[in-house]
Amino acid sequence: MAREYAKHCPASPMKNSLLVTAAILLIIQAASCQRVRVETEVEAYPTESVDLRCQFVDGGNTKLTQVSWIWEPTEGQRDNIAVFHPTYGESFPESPFSGRVRFIKGTLTSPSITITSLKMADAGRYTCEYATYPSGNEQGTTNLVMLAKPKNSASPVVVQASTSGKPVVVAQCEAADSKPAATIKWMGAVGGTENTTSVKGPDGTVTVRSEYLIVPTPEDNGKEVTCIISQRTQDKPQTFPMKLAVEYPPTVSIVGYDNNWYIGRTDAVLTCQATGNPAPTTVTWTVMSGPMPDTVQINANKLIVRKVDEAVNTTFVCEVKNRLGVSKHQVTTAVIEQRKITAGPSTAGIIGGTIGVVLFLLAIVSAVIILVRKRKQNAVNGDGPPKHKPPPPVKAGSSTEMLNKPVTDSVLTETQPFSNVYYETSGEPVTDLDACDDDDDNTVGGGAANGGGPAVLEDSIQYADVDDTLNDEALPPYSDADDHHVDQPPSAAVARGESFVSAAMYV
Ligand SMILES: *[C@@H]1O[C@H](CO)[C@@H](O)[C@H](O)[C@H]1NC(C)=O
Ligand SMILES: *[C@@H]1O[C@H](CO)[C@@H](O)[C@H](O)[C@H]1NC(C)=O
């Protein structure tokens, strides 16, 4: 508490030094040559209490008649708050401290006081003033500094992905009613700007507010920013990590169409992948040509064709909604008479499989031949047949080192699992129809907003608008009118690698 005691009557050893120094020392001496000892500065907090200490030292022949505490809230104003007289005792004149001030000991040489239930407004200068004889009044002054801990808070601000390119407040942080004022800093990898303002309260405290602004994009959703509040009364800065909340309408794409829906194929699957914040709640599958064919089963975001026939020679549309909008994507499934085997990785696989089978057979045949030869050779060399029974030729194929190479090759040749792999992995959607987004071959690298190739007419118009503006705007404008939907380019969803299910993590 005590910063230092005011010096009393120092005997300066330096009076004979330089004139300037002497002059300064004289001034200090005049100011500090006091026999009234007080602390120069004391800090305290509201609602707590504080001791203001005062002592008269080196009395000598000086007669002390009375001591008073005088409060100076502002320059020039002097309020007597406590008086002690050796004969008449303690007195507390009417003041803002009535009932909150008392003498600790109540002696003339040690008239320290305690003030309780402190308020911010109690800050100011407190003078311990002695009436003495014969030298007159002597005094010492303590500065009471009222401190206030800040009430700290921080919160992200839910925003919608920007379509205007203007920065908006995405997080805010506040250090309220503190003294002295707090400082607020931000940390974050989203490259925002800060706007910090401070407002003085009537009691001398300060409220500091800071806002963090970015141009929000869907990608910023869930990213972290941290607000750091520092203030004199805190041991260490207080940090508030926050996750940004950026809402955006859904983006949707249908994956799984492999351009090979031949008549009779079973369990062909289309998957509608969507992201959005809030997470899309409804996924609706429709058929352009009319009612959903009987052979089709819908399971949430999956459309399963139990058996491919002419009825699914059509265009399937997946529509996804969240609070902010609707997004559609469509894929035209061209049913073909015959399974395609002329191109693509599938054909390579089948050919490879066939070769593998041939190699496997060759391997077995050669193994048998080699074994037979070896046995003959052994017989010629006189080694004689082994004591134990030689392995029968049938087993030889899996037990001798000579066969390892052909065997490993042939592992790949089982055609059944291979065809499964083919169905699952070569399922990048390829849509031929004009009415669809551009080739999904572009999905990985394609720019988001540019992904919309020639689409349904109304969509083309919207895309034209978007393309005229910023390229990096991930989201085209959307409308909640159902007939005015936006076909989101599939690239956004696919590039993030998020399935419909994982989109639900955005809350
Ligand atoms: C900063 O915040 C204050 C108070 O909220 C506001 O009046 C001011 O316009 C803001 N300045 C900027 C640059 O955003
Ligand atoms: C599918 O429709 C296209 C045109 O809409 C037609 O050319 C094609 O023959 C149809 N396929 C089958 C298997 O009916």
Automatic annotation (TrEMBL):
Membrane-crossing residue ranges in chain numbering: 348-372
Gly residues compositional bias, start-end: 444-454
Alphabetical UniProt keywords: Cell adhesion, Cell junction, Cell membrane, Disulfide bond, Glycoprotein, Immunoglobulin domain, Membrane, Repeat, Signal, Transmembrane, Transmembrane helix
Cited Gene3D superfamilies: Immunoglobulins
GO CC aspect terms: adherens junction; plasma membrane
Top-rank lineage group of the source organism: Eukaryota
Membrane topology of the entry: Single-pass membrane protein
UniProt-annotated stretches for the region Disordered: 379-401, 429-455, 467-494
SUPFAM superfamilies to which the protein is assigned, alphabetical: Immunoglobulin
Location(s) in or outside the cell: Cell junction, Adherens junction; Cell membrane
Signal peptide positions on this chain: 1-33
Stored SMART domains: IG (SM00409), IGv (SM00406)
UniProt main location, coarse: other
Domain spans labelled Ig-like: 13-145, 150-239, 250-342
InterPro entries (alphabetical): CD80_C2-set, Ig-like_dom, Ig-like_dom_sf, Ig-like_fold, Ig_sub, Ig_V-set, Nectin/PVR
One of the protein's GO biological processes: cell adhesion
Family: Belongs to the nectin family.
PANTHER family: NECTIN-2
Protein name stated in the entry: Nectin cell adhesion molecule 3
Lineage: Eukaryota, Metazoa, Chordata, Craniata, Vertebrata
